[in-house]
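Pasting as-is:
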Amino acid sequence: MAKDTLYLLNTSFEKDGALRFCPDCAMMEGYLATFPQLRDMLDIVRVDYPRPRPALVDRLGEAHQNAPTLILAAPSADAGPHGEIQSANGLSFLTDARPITRWLAARYGLAAPL
């Protein structure tokens, strides 16, 4: 069975001469730590900070390189209850931590963000 694929930035990277991290990706890492069963339910791909990000470009196109991004295994018939599901190249996806965690919570019966 195909799995949804979660794309996250590597946990730290250099930008403007300083070590940085992505707050939304860190929130996703915390969600994965809180609900470790998700690691078995999802394919998790870590990508480098600099663009282009080939792993995302290959699937969604140049315009959709944001991380975190969750690409759904099956296309969605609509934008979902919160209007957050997007589509590109025949794939359905969500970006940003809150929409992703809302979707994962509903899909897998987990706690949702406030």
